[in-house]
Amino acid sequence: KKENNLVVVDLMTLAHRYKHKKQFTFASDMLKTIMSIANSYSAKDVIVTSDYGKSAYRLSLFPEYMGDRAARYADQSPEEQKYTELFFAELANTRELLAECTNFIQFKGVEADDIAAYIVAKMKDKYDNIWLISTDSDWDQNLSENVHRFSSRTRREYTLENFYDEHAVDNPNEWTILKALQGGHDNIKGVEDIVIVTGK
Q: Are the CB atoms for 131 and 149 separated by under 8 Å?
């Protein structure tokens, strides 16, 4: 039985599981996985989101954004380069299949994080629950009483109830401030000479 729930899927974080397993034919399996997740949350609607290049907005603010990724790919062995090419070729096939079979959203120069945040802001009052399917903890900035995240990597659900256990702060607003102070991946530096001390 379908309930008034929405599932929003982060395609890239699901797809990277296949890359790590060196499985390069995964389009149909990805579709089955997404439908299985939707069924497990009794979702009547499913939206699949995907990055499509780097965020043009973030690059306009900080041209060094994700600048460390080019160096990471430059150090690949020939075998790793082959695996990367095979992965992105099948990812293109997967996007085509999902565009035919699901509500699939991607925009050039926009990342899945931003699409998910927009969907939550505009639609959370229309659903009893929204489940964000992503391994990216940045998505926890969207959590609220009826917005939750499931990670296929940890096999855990992240909610307001266990927010402190995961992030050592009480709510998404504090998490956003903490991340701004700490910096993080994607070549984003934190505030110099500030040390984050938590009760964890």
A: yes
| Antiparallel, parallel or unpaired: β 183-184 and 3-10 | unpaired
Nearest to 96 by CA among 45, 146, 27, 37: 27
Look at phi and psi of residue 23 and say left if phi exceeds 0, alpha if psi is from -120 to 50, else beta. Answer: beta
Rounded Cα distance, 200 and 168, in Å? 6
Structure tokens at 196: 């984050």
* Residue 196's pLDDT band (cuts 50, 70, 90): low
Decide the pairing of beta strands 129-133 and 147-151. Answer: parallel
- Tally Cβ neighbours within 10 Å of residue 60: 10
H-type alpha helices, the chain: 11-20, 27-40, 56-61, 67-74, 78-101, 112-123, 163-167, 172-182
Query: What tokens were used for 125?
Result: 């009052």
What confidence score (pLDDT) does residue 182 get? 82
Backbone angles phi, psi at 84, to 5 degrees: -65, -40
Instruction: Work out the end-to-end distance of the chain between its first and last CA atoms, rounded to an integer number of angstroms.
Output: 40
CB atoms inside a 10 Å sphere around CB 164: 15
Return the biggest CA–CA distance within the chain: 54
The answer, yes or no, to whether residue 39 has pLDDT greater than 70, is: yes
> What are the φ and ψ backbone dihedral angles of 171, each rounded to 5 degrees?
-155, 170
Task: Please name the residue that has the structure tokens 């307001």.
Answer: 160
For residue 198, name the pLDDT band (cuts at 50, 70, 90).
low
